[in-house]
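Here comes an entry:

___
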Amino acid sequence: MNLVSDILEHKGSEVWSLTPQTTVLEALKSLEEFNVGALLVVNGEKILGVVSERDIVRQLAKSEKCSLDQPVSLWMTSDVIVVPPSMSINECMQLMSKAHIRHLPVVEEGHLLGMISIGDVVRAVINDQQSTITSLENYILSQTIIN
C-alpha cells in the first residue's frame, strides 16, 4: 500500500457523519456506537467540519462547562484538510504530523470517497515495511542457496 486509495480499497469507503444541528451528546453516542475517533459534519455532500474526541475534550477543558445539548457545529473543527486518493501514504503521515490531526477526509473532484485515520496510515506503513523485510529476507536466502 503506497497510496490513500490503497487504504480505502482495504478499509472501505464508509464514512460516519452528522448534521451541524446534531447535539454533542448524540455525537458522543455515535463515536461510541461506530467505534471511531471522528465524525464528519456535513450538509448534504458538503463537508462543513470534523468533530473528534479531541475537539470535545478540548472544548470542555477550555469552557469548563459541560453543555452536551449544544449543536456539534459549535464544537467542530471547521478548517478541514482533505486529501486526494492519489496522495502517497508518506505524504499523509507528514501532513497529519505537521497539522496535528488524526483524520483526513478523502475527496476527489468534490466527492467524498472515504476517511482515513492516523491508525490506517501507520498500519499501511508497517505493512509496507513488513513486505520489504520479507522480500529482502527471501532475496538473501536465495543468494545463500545459490552460493
